[in-house]
Structure formats: C-alpha cells, structure tokens
Amino acid sequence: MLWSTGSTYVYVCEIKGLCPEEPEQIDQASEDLPPEETAAMNEAEIEPEPEPVVESPGLFTLYHNFNQQEFIPNEKFGQYLNQTGAFVRQSENAEISVIGFADNIGSDEYNYSLGLERAAYTKKYMIENGIPEKIISISSKGETSPAATNETEAGRAQNRRTEIQINK
Prior knowledge:
Helices cover 43% and strands 15% of the residues. The protein is an alpha+beta fold. It has a domain at 60-167: CATH 3.30.1330.60. A four-stranded mixed β-sheet has the order 1-4-2-3.
C-alpha cells in the first residue's frame, strides 16, 4: 500500500504536474501583526527605483535660410528638446542661452536684429514644446562671430544659425 501511494504521488505530481505547489512560508513575526502594520512592512521592504540621471544635452545648432527667422526643420531638434526637458526637470538651476547669428550680408545693425529675431523665434518654439520660459535667455551676435568664412555661399549658410547652450 505504501508503494502504491508513493508511486501515485510521483505519477500525479512529478510526471503530470497536477499537484498544487507548496505554499510560501509566511514570516511568523508578521502573522502576529495587524494587517496595517504588515502592509507597512511590505511597503518599506520595496525600495523605489531611483530616477535615471539625465545628462545635459549640451550645445545644439539650428540653421536658417537667408533673411529668415524660422529655422530649417531638423528631426534631431525634437530629440534634443525632449532630453533638454528631462534635464531641466532634474536640475534646479539649469539655464539655457539661445544666441542668434547672421552672415555678413546687410548692415551690422540689421544682422544684429535678425540674430535676435532668430533667437526669439527659437525660444518661442522651445516654450511651446515644454521648456520653461523663465530659464531661457536670448541674445544676438549678428555677424560678429562667424562659424565659417563669409566669402562663400556654403560658409554664409553655416553662419546663419542659432546656438542653444545648456548652462548648469
């Protein structure tokens, strides 16, 4: 009889897998506590995962067509804005500088004004995409800080830009 009971157990539980699993062992100390305290102990044991640290996205450059304040559409700018948003939410003292530039065609005053319009347009776009207005400052360097030569069309195209810098 003992043999048939043992072989039945092996066949049903081990081979067919029809036996229920053994119940988990309960901590005897928590059995004696009221449910509120047991729940509090379980919550205390679970540590929340820390938020991942988001690195500063650093410098980003947008380019503009001749005599235009709107920037040339750029897919990477959306990714940059997402990362910037995540970074500024974690950083209490983040600041963003938006600086507009122009090529050397036109007067110094006009190019300064155009650079400022480009920076203002970019700031407005950033605010519309979730970046807090209070941390964004704008300025213009007009044509005074070229990134490339102004002797060629390709060089002038590189000088028609807005640079966004995250400062911490």
